[in-house]
């Protein structure tokens, strides 16, 4: 955050900054969705929806699970939320009691820990590295489980590492957690942005997982603030009541706009953008390795590369600030993502055209040589 | 909620239901705001804003405090939130620690208690009645304060009672709470919808209060989910960080649309709607009294009448269901608003044209005669 503010300051003075720190796709919302949003406003669709969301949008998402994953998820288990944030908040509030231990990968998305803390749960970061693809494993869960542990929070593709859980690993994780009587909360907000073997939703392996998803990343609707939660049958009532209390409902115009996300026209745009992200990864990954950043495994999803910068520094925060000031390249230091070796890691986001990535790489080359 | 579901069921079978239970203005979003929203989409304004919101919208709200209340509130203390819900969540999370006692009026808006509970605070309903205008008083705060009490949550105009805190009473409350080292969280979401003497924002009496407001009610933007929080100078940083973690930012198109809420054209529409609400109150209040409902004081704000139905029943829940089934009139039983005499109270909302209110009154007359 401080780094982003400093980047803006520098830009205000006329400095050119290459942004490799931004966790938001650079593409505008796709035209069919914009058009649907404008139509919704023209039709005056501005009053509250039900707390669980528009029935037709919940049904569209249910259809999506059947068509894309071959998984039956009835619409009644799907709640529309204000962004994935709203879904995460419902899932954590519904499953975590004060004092409960919640296991998550470290490094990981920082807000996840905050949601756990908000309900007085104890967020326990489990150090992960390249040997497990920066993901939790059934074995790690076994080793860190104790009698106060109740929930395991997974993310695939993950932020900041961009790594995915292969289907069999995900299945083993879900089985292990549930065999211990625990619950899985699964963050799938980067689903769709996958560049290797196909991945599967956790819903394929259990009807008891809580799945968080979003229209922000793959569907390019960040500023609209729209996501969804899939709750287990037994948790739907509680989640709906929580939604009613915590945010009443998600944005009505956004929900109508999102209906267009499931049209063939929009799907073609998303597929094209996915290919563009893949091309960026395929450009940036070898370029960073060549500069001396260690990225031991190829991240197959999202739009992040998590790099070991130990060859250059033992203080990634100072390193990132140095690169910003001297090379005009903004990246995110590891500290934002946890306590496990943050000082020797930085995150690169490829939410920028290849031309800009190339410029960033050249600037880095120059700065790291000096 | 169960009652609303039953009302929808009856309507689905073709029954005509007069809705006097809905806490949402029946007016569509004003045309200038809709147009601004469409313009924002046409311009592709769909990416995240800063967590605290659009600078120009924060400034417009700051100007609004100066022009309407004569109070200086710098834009940096104003955070744009996803509805008043988001603002309430920030305010409660920032001020309440686990175990803290929080005083609120009973009856009151039920979600307020939920936000307190979410952060493991203890929501203490203080019974209020007509003798204090259904509002807390400095004296009530004194009597219910103890060493674990840290926050007092006020609302004016209030839901479900529609009553307002006169400026001098509000000033006394703020002074009393702060003299005890406590914090005031002030819900002002029905400001603007006031039909008696002008009221004042709590910000006029202290720079330490947390004020929650919304574009939903007076500004008619319910489904857009947009509100704001005014934080004390010392709390801005914490609130901004919480916002970043809990919801990233409020809806971008909604924020651009809301800029039009401060134009003269929109203001004229809001003033006209305020007059219409006042006319409805002036129709419904004497009509209900004449039927035998006791409404001992004239509520001067919002769009609610909170009525003692003790003459008809000692079970307002069964009474409301009876009226729904037999008269086709939907009202809200007291149980939704707290523990203080809920069984002899019901809430009427005048979010419906006078013609419909008149039809509702006639149906009630018929049903109560039988």
What does this 3D model show about the protein?
2 copies of one chain form a homodimer. With 370 residues, chain A is an alpha/beta fold. Chain A folds into 2 domains: 2-29 and 265-369, Alpha-Beta Complex (Aspartate Aminotransferase, domain 1), CATH 3.90.1150.10; 45-262, 3-Layer(aba) Sandwich (Aspartate Aminotransferase, domain 2), CATH 3.40.640.10. The first copy, chain A, is 42% helix and 14% strand. A 7-stranded mixed β-sheet of chain A has the order 2-8-7-6-5-3-4, sandwiched between helices. Chain A has a 3-stranded antiparallel β-sheet with strand order 9-12-11. In chain A, β5, α7 (167-179) and β6 (183-187) form a beta-alpha-beta unit. Chain A starts with a helix and ends with a helix. The mean pLDDT of chain A is 97. The A-B interface holds A 1, 24, 28-29, 34, 37-38, 41-42, 44-49, 82-83, 85-86, 89, 93, 98, 110-111, 114-115, 118-120, 221-225, 244-254 and B 1, 24, 28-29, 34, 37-38, 41-42, 44-49, 82-83, 85-86, 89, 93, 98, 110-111, 114-115, 118-120, 221-225, 244-254.
Question: How far apart, in Å, are the first and last alpha carbons of chain A?
Answer: 27 Å
Write the CATH architecture name of the largest domain in chain A.
3-Layer(aba) Sandwich
Q: How many strands, what sense, and barrel or not for the largest sheet of chain A?
A: 7 strands, mixed
The SSE string of chain A, one letter per element, is HEHHEHEHEHEHEEEHHHEHEEEH
The CATH homologous superfamily of the largest domain in chain A: Type I PLP-dependent aspartate aminotransferase-like (Major domain)
Instruction: Give the overall silhouette of chain A.
Output: globular
**Structurally, how many domains make up the residues of chain A?**
2
Low-confidence stretches of chain A: none
Q: Hey, which two chains have the biggest interface?
A: A-B, 45 and 45 residues
Determine and state the CATH class of the largest domain in chain A.
Alpha Beta
């Amino acid at each position: 955050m401080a780094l982003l503010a400093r980047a803006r300051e520098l830009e205000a003075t006329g400095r050119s900054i290459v942004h490799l720190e931004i966790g938001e796709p650079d593409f505008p919302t796709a035209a069919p969705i914009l058009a649907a949003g404008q139509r919704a406003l023209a039709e005056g669709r501005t009053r509250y929806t039900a707390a669980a969301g528009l029935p037709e949008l919940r049904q569209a998402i249910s259809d999506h699970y059947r068509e894309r994953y071959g998984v039956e998820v009835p619409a009644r288990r799907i709640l529309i939320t204000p962004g994935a944030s709203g879904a995460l908040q419902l899932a954590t509030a519904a499953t975590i009691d004060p004092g409960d231990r919640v296991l998550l990968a470290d490094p990981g998305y920082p807000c996840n820990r905050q949601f756990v803390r908000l309900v007085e749960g104890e967020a326990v970061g489990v150090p992960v590295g390249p040997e497990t693809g920066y993901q939790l494993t059934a074995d790690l869960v076994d080793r860190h489980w104790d009698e106060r542990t109740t929930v395991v929070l997974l993310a695939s593709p993950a932020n900041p590492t961009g790594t995915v859980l292969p289907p069999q690993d995900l299945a083993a994780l879900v089985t292990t957690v549930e065999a211990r009587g625990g619950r899985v909360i699964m963050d799938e907000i980067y689903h769709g942005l996958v560049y290797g073997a196909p991945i599967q939703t956790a819903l394929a392996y259990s009807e008891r997982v809580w799945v968080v998803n979003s229209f922000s990343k793959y569907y390019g609707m960040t500023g609209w603030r729209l996501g969804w939660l899939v709750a287990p049958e037994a948790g739907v009532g509680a989640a709906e009541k929580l939604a009613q209390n915590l945010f009443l409902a998600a944005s009505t115009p956004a929900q109508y706009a999102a209906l267009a996300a499931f049209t063939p026209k929009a799907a073609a745009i998303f597929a094209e953008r996915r290919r563009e992200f893949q091309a960026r990864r395929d450009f940036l990954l070898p370029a960073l390795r060549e500069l001396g950043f260690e990225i031991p495994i190829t991240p197959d999803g999202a739009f992040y590369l998590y790099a070991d910068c130990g060859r250059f520094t033992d203080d990634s925060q100072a390193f990132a600030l140095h690169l910003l000031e001297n090379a005009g390249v903004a990246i995110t230091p590891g500290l934002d993502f946890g306590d496990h070796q943050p000082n020797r890691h930085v995150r690169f986001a490829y939410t920028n055209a290849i031309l800009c990535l190339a410029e960033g790489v050249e600037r880095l080359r120059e700065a790291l040589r000096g």
